[in-house]
Amino acid sequence: MKGDNKKQQYRVNEQIHVREVRIVGEGIESKVIPTRDALQLADQMGVDLVEISPTAQPPVCRLIDYSKFLYQIKKKAKEMKAKQVKIDVKEIRFGPQTAEADYAFKLKHAIEFLTQGNKVKAYVFFKGRSIVFKEQGEVLLLRLANDLEDVGKVESMPSLEGKKMIIMLAPKKPGSGNQKKKEQQKQATPALQQVEKETPEEENEE
User: Fold this and answer.
1) Is the pLDDT of residue 20 over 50?
2) Residues forming CATH 3.30.110.10 domain(s) in the chain
3) Per CATH, which fold does 89-198 belong to?
4) 156 with 200: CB under 8 angstroms?
5) Rounded CA gap, 159 and 82, in Å?
6) Could you give the CA distance from residue 146 to residue 165 in angstroms, rounded to a whole number?
7) How far apart (Å, rounded) are the C-alpha atoms in residues 9 and 110?
8) Class of domain 13-66
């Protein structure tokens, strides 16, 4: 067994004190044998006896080089981590009386965020006495959810949190909304086309 500086998570060779074990490994027939025989077999093969399932009856041990065994575990963990999709939350801000051009521009970005696999936190910010327009804010957010129904699903309905009315949208499965996305972009009206020709200062609007 090659040395390993990391904290050992598995019992190996003489650390295994049970009377018998089930051995497994490449080219090895799974069978239950006395632990001393398993250790002798590992020694003959030039590998280690690694306990991989200590709670089984009897414990399961693998005949493999311990360093190779740790490498395989690390590689598998890395592959699983790579498969995990990181989901970011993108925020889109509206005013209670958002103009059509501004709405069309932000709708376009919401579509892009969702189709890229991100969540969207859209909210209407009520400044000062504009809180009296909270019903309009709710209508706007529901309209947004409806316009995004083919690329996103509602995770939480519009709710008022302080001066913000917020709705959360999560992406649908990749490819499920490509056609609707194209239709929405076509239906973005001349207002959207006009916005795209200009520098989109609205995006950084507070």
Assistant:
1) yes
2) 89-198
3) Translation Initiation Factor IF3 (3.30.110)
4) no
5) 35
6) 17
7) 46
8) alpha beta
Q: What is the CA radius of gyration of the chain?
A: 30
- Give pLDDT, residue 85: 65
Q: Which residues of 41-54 are buried (b: 16+ CB within 10 A; e: fewer)?
A: bbeeeebbbbbeee
pLDDT tens for 93-136 read: 998 888 999 999 999 999 999 998 899 999 999 887 766 778 88
Tell me: the pLDDT tens digits for 82-95? 777 677 899 999 98
Pairing of strands 119-125, 89-94: parallel
Instruction: Tell if the pTM clears 0.70, that is, is over it.
Output: no
Q: What is the residue-wise DSSP string for 131-195?
A: GGGHHHHHHHHHHHHHHTTTTEEEEEEEEEETTEEEEEEEE-STTTTHHHHHHHHHTTHHHHHHH
> What residue type is assigned to position 87 of the chain?
I
CATH 3.10.20.80: which residues of the chain?
13-66
Residue 15 class from Cβ within 10 Å (0-12 exposed, 13-18 middle, 19+ buried)?
Answer: exposed
Please state, in angstroms and rounded to a whole number, the distance separating the CA atoms of residues 187 and 38: 71
